[in-house]
Each structure stands twice: as structure tokens, then as C-alpha cells.
Design brief:
- The strands form six sheets. Strands 2-1-5-4-3 form a five-stranded antiparallel beta sheet. Strands 7-6-10-9-8 form a five-stranded antiparallel beta sheet, sandwiched between helices.
- It is of the alpha+beta class.
- A hairpin with a 5-residue loop joins strand 3 and strand 4.
- The protein is built from 20 helices and 21 strands.
- It is rod-shaped.
Length: 539
């Protein structure tokens, strides 16, 4: 609060200095919280103020001679977040001090406390003076001029109203905010000048007069829509030496920029929250895609380490999805051809998408060659730089098999047309089927006398062909057999037998103790189809 000594508006024994100054090297340090309670104070600070221990004590109670002048400054620093430097003060014993006030702020900009540093001042000019010594009367022109020197150019609006709410003093900044010259305020009440605003101000001023307590950090808004301005206003009781209240000190600080900054922070926070929510939704969608996509999807960083992979592609590699993360395709899918790795490197280097076809076996199906179209594309930042690559793998096995069937039929037609010797032609067809469709193939025909004759044999291992012919000679197929060639010739229907369904060897072979033909040839399944001509089964 401000102190009024009856003749001049200053702090008794605590004047403001206006003179060239040189600080002493002895500096005191203290921290005051938002509630104006000392958090800490070193011995130099305490000694320079002529006080006892300060930590844990309220400023007004610990330093009553200094509080009337310093507390408004503390409130200003807390409200504005701005430092005050080289505030020149004088102790009752005539010692001059230089005080600096600096806000201690949180990351969000909230002032949590004020740091105070104080030094003793050594005067270097005989022209130094102080308000208390030089101002004989509040009504003198010199008093007003010196007060204006102190507060007219301060970054805050300041006024003093008496108990009838008449303006006794107002600085230029606050007069400008009110839209009237300084002289238009003096001696007139707030209600005369601003009847509408007085409806808000006067109840608060009466509260200060009634309670003796300040009303701090009230916010007011003015201006037109789209050009709103914001102010923070505090009201303090101004007391005489006998503690009676002489009037009210008004401090006004414009905080429009702070409001705008807070609004911008709120907008940034809202955008950040929206972006975070959008990113979370995107992650959820991506996770659903990776878990359920019918195609293989993968993502890699610039070191070609997995950052994501779909469930079916991970299963193809033979490892869980999580095991891939941070590992390279060479570590997790070393079965893949080198073309895949070189294509990924090319996409990283050029920033252009690439598409290739690959064929290979996998740990999931080691006995069957698969066929895929694989595309790789760059993952780009907003500035266009590459941060990784994505890959999509689509199986084209059915398409390849259809192409192979078409090629097989075309080749079979060509072979069948190349010779009139049917046994030679059938031998060529058997060789065409192997190895494209089967490991080995036998072609049997029904002779005119009703016997079943082996006319062609093909095998991936040529040395097995004589062995197969030998087994068929030793254990010929008869038309009475229940499965296999005999059954298909009788019924005209195809037959598929798995290894477990293969018939037992004939009695004559069982008598020899010899393994069955299926066991000797390591047969896993046998597909038998009829040869038809003019709707008649011929083999």
C-alpha cells in the first residue's frame, strides 16, 4: 500500500532518488512469493534493510517501513511479468539503496515469485535529492512536477482518489486510457467523469475503504468487438502515519498482449490436442489395417529397419509382428531375393516409387514357390524429405498359375500336333506336366483286349524312370482294382488320394516283404484323371 505523511505523497524516510549512482559491491538477495511472503533472504539483504530474519514472514510485517513503497512494485512485477531495475531508495539513516525486482516464472509464463537484489549506493553528485526532502506540499506545482517525473512514464497507469472518490492525482498514461486530459480529472469524482464505469469501480473502492485490504488483479475489458482491450486493475488503501485511510491508490496495467498471447497459447494447445487426437485415430486405423489387411504391408526407416508390419506379412516371415520392429528385412526375411533390398535402396536414393515381381518360397510354405508383386514408395515429411519407405506385397499366385495353365495348354497343343505317333505324343505330354504340375507322371491306356498298358513315364529325377517301369512290370495294374487307374477308367471320374489313402500293395508284393510303390517313390498324393476321346475313356 502507499503511505501518505500529510504533506507529500511519498514513503516516510524512504524517498525515491534521481541522481548519478555507483552501486556498492555488497549485494543482498531475497525471494518473495506471490503472497508477498519471504521465501528466503540472505544476510546481506537482511542487514541492508536493518531487519532480523526474514524467511517465512510477510513483507509488510517484516519490513513495515519499506512495505508501502515496495508492495505496489511487487504486485506490478507479479501482474506484468516484467522486471523493474535500479529503483533508488533511501533508508531512515540516510543510506541510499538500489533495488532490482525480477519475476521468477513457470514455463507457462505464470509469475511464481519475485527475486529481489539490493545494493548500497554511493552518491557521486551533490545535486541528489529525494521526494520527501524536496516536496513541502502536495498542492505545490513542484510536487506535482516531481511526481510526474517519477510515475508519468511508468509502464502502468496510476491514480490517487480521496475517500469521496475524487481524483487527487492521475498520471498521463491512465488519463490517456480514460480518454481525458489529466487536468480534467483533478477534483472531480469518477461518477461525474465515467458514470457507467463507476457502477463497477465504486463498490470495489468502498470495499477497500471498509476492510482496509487491497483488491488485486481485477480484469476489465473495453473497446469494440474485434478490437477488445484488457486491463488488470488493483486498488490499495493509502494510509496516513496514524494508519487512517486517506484514499485509494489505483494501479492499471494493460494486459491485452498477454491475453492475446494466452489466446494464442490456447489455440495452439487446442490445435495440438486436435492433432494428437487425429494422430491417435490415425494410429488406431493403421493398427487395424496392419492387423487385418489381406495384403502384406510394411514400413521402414531410412536405415531400412521395420517400423511397422502387417500380420499376414509377419506370418509369412515366420516371426511375430513385434519381433520385426527395429530389425532389417535381411534379419527377418533372409529368404527374399536380393532384388527386394536393392529396390528399397533405390527408393531411398531417388525418392521415387518402384514396383517389382518376385517368386520364392517362404518359411510359411517352404515347399511351394509363391509369386508376388511388391511396390515400395517413399514416406515424406512436409518439406519433401524422405523419412522412410513403405511397402505393399500382393500375391499373384493364382494369376501366375492361370498363366502357367494357359502356357501348359498351349504347349500341349503344340506337342500333340507335332506327331502322329500317339505313344510319343503322350510321352511328351508327361514330360510337359513334370515338373510344372507334378513330381512324376504316368500315362496308361486301355488296350483293345481290356488290359491297362503303361505308355509313358516322366519324373523330375530321370534315374527313377526305369525303377517305375520295373515296378509296374512286376506289379501290373488290373481292371479289377478298387482305386487308382482302374477305378478312373471304369467310372470316368478323377480321383485324388492322399498318402494315408493310398491302397495297400497287392498280396504278391506283400509276400516279398517289399515296401509299397508309394513308399518307394515317397508319394504324398496321387491325382488320377481320365483320358477322354469322343466321351469315351481310353486311359
Amino acid at each position: 500500500m502507499f503511505h501518505w505523511n500529510g504533506s507529500s505523497m511519498h514513503e516516510p524516510g524512504f524517498p525515491l532518488m534521481v541522481a548519478p549512482q555507483r552501486p556498492d559491491t555488497s549485494r543482498g538477495y531475497a525471494v518473495v512469493g506471490r503472497d508477498l511472503c519471504f521465501v528466503e533472504a540472505d544476510t546481506v539483504f537482511t542487514r541492508l534493510h536493518g531487519a532480523d530474519a526474514l524467511a517465512g514472514r510477510m513483507y509488510a510485517e517484516a519490513l513495515p517501513d519499506f512495505a508501502p513503497a515496495i508492495e505496489p512494485l511487487l504486485h506490478h512485477v507479479i501482474a506484468s511479468g516484467k522486471s523493474l531495475a535500479e529503483v533508488a531508495l533511501q533508508r531512515p539513516d540516510g543510506t541510499s539503496l538500489s533495488l532490482n525486482l525480477h519475476p521468477l516464472q513457470s514455463r507457462s509464463g505464470l509469475v511464481l515469485a519475485v527475486e529481489l537484489t539490493v545494493q548500497r549506493i554511493v552518491d557521486q553528485s551533490s545535486n541528489s535529492f529525494h521526494v520527501g526532502a524536496a516536496l513541502p506540499s502536495m498542492n505545490s506545482e513542484r510536487t506535482r512536477a516531481l511526481l510526474n517525473t517519477v510515475v508519468a512514464h511508468a509502464p502502468i497507469g496510476f491514480a490517487f482518489v480521496d475517500t469521496d472518490f475524487r481524483y487527487v492525482y492521475i498520471n498521463t498514461m491512465l488519463a490517456k486510457l480514460n480518454g481525458r486530459p489529466v487536468e480534467a480529472h483533478i477534483g472531480r469524482t469518477a461518477r461525474e467523469l465515467f458514470p457507467h464505469a463507476a457502477e463497477t469501480w465504486e463498490p470495489l473502492w468502498r470495499q477497500v475503504l471498509a476492510t482496509g485490504n487491497p483488491v488485486l488483479d481485477m480484469e476489465f475489458t473495453g473497446g469494440q468487438a474485434g478490437q477488445l482491450r484488457f486491463w488488470q486493475i488493483s486498488y490499495y488503501p493509502v494510509r496516513a502515519d496514524d494508519a487512517s485511510i486517506l484514499g485509494i491508490g489505483v494501479i492499471v496495467q494493460e494486459i491485452t498482449e498477454r491475453h492475446q498471447a494466452e489466446a494464442e497459447r490456447s489455440q495452439l494447445f487446442a490445435r495440438e490436442q486436435a492433432a494428437r487426437q487425429s494422430a491417435e485415430e490415425a494410429r488406431t486405423l493403421l493398427e487395424g489395417l496392419l492387423a487385418n489387411a489381406p495384403v502384406g504391408i510394411s514400413f521402414f526407416d531410412t536405415a531400412l529397419r521395420y517400423t511397422g508390419i502387417s500380420a499376414n506379412l509377419a506370418a509369412m516371415n515366420g516371426f511375430p509382428r513385434e519381433a520385426h520392429l527395429g530389425r532389417t528385412p535381411h534379419e527377418m526375411a533372409n529368404y527374399a531375393p536380393p532384388l527386394i533390398g536393392s529396390t528399397m535402396q533405390q527408393v531411398l536414393r531417388t525418392g521415387q516409387p518402384e514396383m517389382i515381381e518376385v517368386s520364392h518360397t517362404t518359411p510359411q510354405q517352404p515347399q511351394q514357390q509363391g509369386h508376388w508383386v511388391v511396390s515400395f514408395y517413399p514416406l515424406l515429411r512436409a518439406d519433401g524429405s524422405v523419412i522412410g519407405i513403405g511397402g505393399v506385397r500382393i500375391s499373384i499366385g493364382e494369376q501366375k498359375r492361370a498363366e502357367q495353365r494357359q502356357e501348359l495348354l498351349a504347349e500341349a497343343s503344340r506337342l500333340l500336333a507335332s506327331s502322329f505317333d500317339y505313344e510319343q505324343t503322350l510321352d511328351l505330354v508327361g514330360k510337359l506336366i513334370v515338373p510344372e504340375l507334378a513330381d512324376f507322371c504316368c500315362v496308361d491306356l486301355l488296350t483293345d483286349d481290356g488290359e491297362i498298358k503303361l505308355v509313358a513315364v516322366a519324373h523330375t529325377q530321370l534315374e527313377q524312370i526305369p525303377h517305375i517301369r520295373s515296378l509296374r512290370q512286376r506289379f501290373p495294374i488290373t481292371t479289377t482294382m478298387q482305386h487308382g487307374v482302374a477305378a478312373v477308367i471304369r467310372t470316368g471320374a478323377s480321383e485324388l488320394l492322399t498318402q494315408a489313402e493310398l491302397p495297400a500293395p497287392p498280396p504278391e508284393q506283400q509276400d516279398t516283404g517289399e515296401a509299397s510303390i508309394g513308399e518307394q517313390l515317397n508319394i504324398h498324393a496321387v491325382l488320377t484323371v481320365p483320358l477322354l476321346t469322343r466321351n469315351q475313356v481310353i486311359g
